[in-house]
Structure formats: C-alpha cells, structure tokens
Amino acid sequence: MSSTGEELSAAASGPAWLLRGRERTATALAFALGLAAILGALGSQYIGGLYPCELCLEQRLAYYWGLPLLAVVLVLWTRLPPTVWYLAMALAAAIFVWGTSMGVYHAGVEWGFWPGPTACSGTGVAVSFEQLGNIDAARVVPCDKVQWTLFGVSLAGYNAVISFGIVVLLASAMVERWRRGGRARA
User: Computed from CA positions of residues 147, 150, 152, 155, in that sequence, does the dihedral angle turn out positive or negative?
Assistant: First the structure.
C-alpha cells in the first residue's frame, strides 16, 4: 500500500471529520459545554437543593443570553454572511467573557478577597421587624458562603473556568475561520 504525501499529512493532522469544520466543532463544543453547565446549575438547585444566591443567579445570565445566540449561529451556519457570523460569535464570546468575570468576582467574594453585594453578603443595613413581613417566606442565601466544593473549588470557581473555556473555544473558531479566509464549511 502506498500513500501520497497529501494523504500522509492529512492523516497526521487529525481525523477528516474534524478537519472539515474545526470552527463548527469548536462552536458546538462551546454550546455543549455551556448547556451542560447551566443544566448542572439548574439540577443542583431543583434536584440537589442548592439554592442560588444573588450572584449565582446573575452568573446564569451569560448562559441564558449566550446559548440561544450560539444555537442560532449553529443552525444558520452556512447561511450567515461572514460579517454577521463574526459579529454573532464575537458577541457570544463577549457575553462569556462577562460570565467569566462574574465567576471570578463571585469566587473572590467567597474567598474574602473583596466585598460582595450588600444584599447577600456581610451584615447589610438594619431592618425592623415591621419591614420583614413574612420572614418564613423569604430565603436569603449569602453570596460569601460556599455551599459546595469539589477539590477545593466552588461552583463559582467552576463557572469561571467553564465560561473561560467557552471563550477559548469561540475564539479558536473565529481564528480558524479567519485563517481559511472567512468561508463557512458545512
């Protein structure tokens, strides 16, 4: 059996299905990673009983905004003009950059590196009993207390890492398409 130099270089650089659409694969991986993260957060809340604090809920916004945008990009992959594709990908990446910063901020609040919002950390302002209404109906989850860790990393820390991973995947997809001249591949 003899192989041409072209076949050898293609075999050495990776599987053909991955080479055909690296940017689409990276975007799909970013979407899947984000979907797994938000489903994990919702599962930990509704199944695991870990109630989110104010910062946890705010961190979820990156997934609520970014994932639908990525879904549209993936569905309309070959139909989007290059400029629109780049704008949508850059917007999704920016959303997850913000999500990364929120995760870092929340993890810093948990570690005591900086103060968190007064609504969910520290002592806050004095409140009278008349203002409380039904105290049993309200559940205040402190932002500066860690509810769960794995290997010493809290959920906020994992959110920062996952959001950063999504940003890296989206950036690599944009760079790969730019290197190929901006053309979409199915």
Answer: negative
User: Burial of 53 by CB count in 10 Å (0-12 exposed, 13-18 middle, 19+ buried)?
Assistant: buried
- For 26-63, the pLDDT digits (tens) are 999 999 999 999 999 999 999 988 888 888 889 999 99
Of 29, 171, 7, give the one whose Cα is nearest residue 97. 171
The answer to whether the beta carbons of residues 155 and 56 sit under 8 Å apart is: yes
Residue-wise burial string across 104-134, b where 16 or more C-beta atoms lie within 10 A, e elsewhere: bbbbbbbeeeeebbeebbeeeeeeeeeeeee
Asked if pLDDT for residue 2 goes beyond 70, the answer is no
Residue type, 127: V
